[in-house]
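INPUT
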Amino acid sequence: MPTPEPATSPLLVNVTPPYPVHVGQGDSFLANAIAGLALPPLSQVVVVADTQVAEHGHADRVAAAWRARGLPCNTLLVPAGEDSKSVPMWAGLHERLLRLGADRSTLVCAVGGGVVGDLAGFVAATFMRGVPFVTVPTTLLAMVDAAVGGKTGIDLEAGKNLVGAFWQPLAVVADAGMLATLPQPHFREGTVELYKHALLANLPWRSEMHTRDGAVAWPAAWVGERQLTVLRDAIHVKASIVARDPLEAGERAHLNLGHTLAHALETITQHRMRHGTAVAYGLVYAAMVGAGNRPGTHAWLPDVVALARWAADAPLPHASFEALWTAMQRDKKRRGGRLSFVLLNEPGAPDTDTGIPERVFRGAWDALLAEFGGDA
Amino acid sequence: MPTPEPATSPLLVNVTPPYPVHVGQGDSFLANAIAGLALPPLSQVVVVADTQVAEHGHADRVAAAWRARGLPCNTLLVPAGEDSKSVPMWAGLHERLLRLGADRSTLVCAVGGGVVGDLAGFVAATFMRGVPFVTVPTTLLAMVDAAVGGKTGIDLEAGKNLVGAFWQPLAVVADAGMLATLPQPHFREGTVELYKHALLANLPWRSEMHTRDGAVAWPAAWVGERQLTVLRDAIHVKASIVARDPLEAGERAHLNLGHTLAHALETITQHRMRHGTAVAYGLVYAAMVGAGNRPGTHAWLPDVVALARWAADAPLPHASFEALWTAMQRDKKRRGGRLSFVLLNEPGAPDTDTGIPERVFRGAWDALLAEFGGDA
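OUTPUT
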């Protein structure tokens, strides 16, 4: 029986070994993509999903695709939400895998958003010192960002993703059809990271997201094949940077444009703020810091102000600069005691700077509060 | 100021990137070896040691060597013993690192035996998705085996090392002078793994360990430079295999000669049996399984019987074959539901076999019980 081919050729993430990112949609896309993956000999597949994703039937559809490939497949569910990225949940998944008879030939398949991908990926990285991993992102955020690049991890009281590993999947299968069940705030959140990738690589279609009155919207024309092209372009930006710097020794930090403030806002709001909202404010902050650092640059500032007005679903907290500064100092990207901040003097030209004076960060925070009011 | 050179040139473990194993002794060896290591820019060093190693002053001496290199150095202690290889101890070390202000430029330095090396190595593998790691083994077992090769991990209720990662150190510094404080049972335990490496590579000095009356002993001539040579030879066996197969995809399994039974004995005795004792019985068992599988081979069986008589410090438990078989099936090396067993038809020629009939395993267990009596 010939192996069915996925409808389109996949993107390739050029790490060692390289792996494909299949992006598609339609009734047979998922099954065909999974049937066609090149994988080592496997004893079974364990799907890890959250209860919400399971309710939409995505976990069952993926499990069915694995079984159609001739592999036994069980499903382990975790509660939906960031709280599942915990040490006990992660350790418990190892025990649950053992009870299913999992061994080193067991493939872990994440089906979900960033939380499930990070958690299941970290389980795959550490179960018996590492087993094969495939990820099926179900949110726009996970498709354009989390699913590609091998970052896995869980949270501690002290902060998010403080424990983890780089563990590349053997394949990513992104079914854009799953976005139909995605609530609007989740969709906008993913759009923020997609926009960030368009900024980093200065992709031409970014301008299509700006309406004539200066607002941001998901263009009505971005459906069907056009939507897949936009998704592939955004994923390609991430895949290229990851391939050049898989372990975040340098250039990969550029992907954290907007994320220094975002992580600090998440800390300050005790993670009640959605990641996409925090990154939207963070992109504005990055532009303001950059403009403060090098006056006359950052003409893209109004663009991200418009993006944040469209995408943010929570007000900017009216925190003191001191509280913000403390939270920013905890950032993982800190090396050798210096805060490394990602700047984008113009779209397509990201850079990192460890020498920005504190007064610039303070001035930008004042400007951000002035722009978005704060919830005082 | 010129960088001081270690007295001898190190062994090299040829993984990517390669790393040195410094083996030496004498007053200035440790400080010189640490001073001469090629390392990335670091913000601080955190030594992880157990209370027993700290009592002997080894942790302080290593910390002093790091400070002499100009790096701030703190020490985190854990209780001595296998119980420290737990999820809570591992998670807690992440929190303790954060309280010390550790970031991605912090180097974790293990000072201890296999337990501390596995635990601290796994912390280094997962703290902020991985930080630089150096290990200073303080036992013979850790020097010739655990310190080289990047296996790190912790235990679950269900078994040892079920959670972990491959995380290569940037360097190994083995100070044979530390063996002076090692209790005799620990020394014999390390000798078992050293003997196993000599068997795997058919090293000529193995015969020196057999006395004329057929017993095994640590040769009186193996002191000073001669001891260092033997250590380096044994480490070289492991380093060569690791370099050819860093992630245990194939050949590296040969290092598990004797370990399928050893892990089962550890499970059956609830880890009250010393690893070296379990491996000594395991080497005899491997020879008996091999001889049962291919009669006329395994002339080295009497040698390892003598080794076990000398090294084992606990009786062989009189377990039923069924209990043993169940425990052996849990082995991590199992792939695709088959038990993969390491055979050594003659010294220097290890091989793995997934097709050995159950009756051969049963017959060998009866033979082992007959040889070592059991504690019934």
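end of record. The two ends of chain B are 66 Å apart (CA to CA).
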